[in-house]
Specification:
The protein is mainly alpha-helical. It has 6 helices and no strands. It is 77% helix and 0% strand. The mean pLDDT is 89.
């Protein structure tokens, strides 16, 4: 009975180790999915940030009396580029979205600009990018939800605490006015 008991003990230990390895690997996989989700948002935000100066430059020739609007959008873009974490990025992108909305509302007063093909193409690109940002944000938040659930639920919360898996922030906009997607249609 001693050898059989020892074999059963070893078998149980191996099963427990395999379960722990599976839980740990699941935590790593979901953490990496969160990081990938953020990388996808970052790509789309960079694309948005790259489009804005072109849009502004195209508009400057038509909108000579709108310097405050140009300054606001440039400052908001700089703030968004300088964001260090998800919470800061969400806040900065909200401010940029408001500045962009104000800019596009101002464009309504310039019919020649609205007819400019270059401006229209940039506007279409921006609209497409806004949709991609929205999709990427939703994907990221879904990944964060899964990850946060895993690190808070038993038994994976034990390993998460031991290996310093920490909660991640959602990419959410806190101010209701900032939730408005910039309108880019004419």
């Amino acid at each position: 009975m001693g050898v059989l008991g020892f074999g059963i003990f070893i078998g149980i230990c191996v099963i427990l180790v395999l379960i722990l390895v599976g839980i740990y690997n699941g935590l790593v996989r979901t953490r990496n999915q969160v990081d990938n989700g953020w990388a996808q948002i970052d790509v789309q935000l960079k694309r948005r940030h790259d489009l804005i100066p072109n849009l502004v430059e195209t508009a400057k020739g038509y909108m000579k009396h709108e310097q405050e609007t140009f300054k606001a959008i440039t400052a908001a873009r700089a703030g968004a580029l300088g964001a260090k974490n998800v919470k800061d990025a969400a806040a900065a992108e909200g401010v940029l979205g408001q500045a962009l909305s104000q800019f596009l509302l101002t464009v309504e007063n310039y019919p020649d600009l609205k007819a400019n093909q270059n401006f229209l193409a940039l506007q279409e690109e921006l609209s497409s990018t806004e949709n991609k940002i929205s999709f990427s944000r939703q994907n990221y938040n879904d990944q964060v939800l899964t990850y946060n659930n895993k690190i808070q639920m038993f038994p994976s919360n034990i390993l998460a605490g031991m290996f310093n898996f920490t909660r991640r922030d959602f990419f959410e906009i806190e101010d209701a006015a900032e939730r408005e997607v910039p309108k880019v249609s004419f």
